[in-house]
Amino acid sequence: MKKMLLTLLSLTLITVLAACGANNGGNKASNAAASSAPAAGASAAPSAEPVTLVVGASPIPHAEILKAIAPQLEAQGIKLEIKEFTDYVQPNVQLAEGQLDANFFQHKPYLDDQNQKNGWNLTSVAAVHVEPFGAYSKKIKSIDELKDGAKVAIPNDATNGGRALILLAKNGLITLKDPNNIASTKSDITENKKNLKIIELEAANLPRQLDEVDLALINANYALEAGLVPTKDALFIESGDSPYANLLVARPDDKEKDAIKKLAAALTSPEAKKFIEDKYQGSIIPAF
């Protein structure tokens, strides 16, 4: 009997010691895990939230270019929200009012004119591309066929209207007081040998008026939207050294912000240049 009790006590002691060893090992693992985990009630360090930039743009080519460079910016923690406009007024209005962080649709003469007229101080951040201005027609194949008294449509905004008149003058259809003055108007025409009837229309409507006029001078973005290829369909077109580079524009207090700088860098990157050259085949020309 004593031997049996002795045996039972020995077995119990062995079991207790084994359990203690297992518990000690388990405690070490738990302690290690606990030391690497956040304390109760504490939260892990949050990952940086992406910055969202709301950018106003004409659908073609501006929004297309922005969409092409969006992945570059996303990799840098910047999300592009592209708001498309079919007019030249609201992108600046909404930028001035703070509804946009930047816009991308206009050249410097137009920006300067709008700042002066509206008391804004919107500023250029980067020059991105040039859209050669062209003359289009569904009725004639060359300017030699343009008849006396022909209807010629041009944009009705100050700078693009002047730009159209300069292009007409360079191609010998009219003469201007100053053939380089972007602010030229119809009153500055000094000679009009063919008695052209120059009609001023909203720039966005010009492609739709091609059936109604003999010639229309159209901004490249609206020409492209209408399915026209400037380098193929224009009867005459601005040369590649056009000074009317399209700009990324922001409010002056935002110009130096990191996200705007990164947007400007992406729009003038080798990837953006390749996209413009491959996509538009000379109808749109990089300005950098």
UniProtKB/TrEMBL annotation:
As for membrane topology, the entry says: Lipid-anchor
UniProt cross-references to InterPro entries, sorted A to Z: Lipoprotein_NlpA
Where is a lipid covalently linked (S-diacylglycerol cysteine)? 20
From which residue to which does the signal peptide run?
1-18
One GO CC annotation, please?
A: membrane
Tell me the SUPFAM superfamilies matching this sequence: Periplasmic binding protein-like II
Report the superkingdom from the record: Bacteria
**Keyword annotations:** Lipoprotein, Membrane, Palmitate, Signal
**Chief localization class?**
membrane
Family according to the record: Belongs to the nlpA lipoprotein family.
Give the protein name, as stated in the record: Lipoprotein
Which organism encodes this protein? Paenibacillus apii
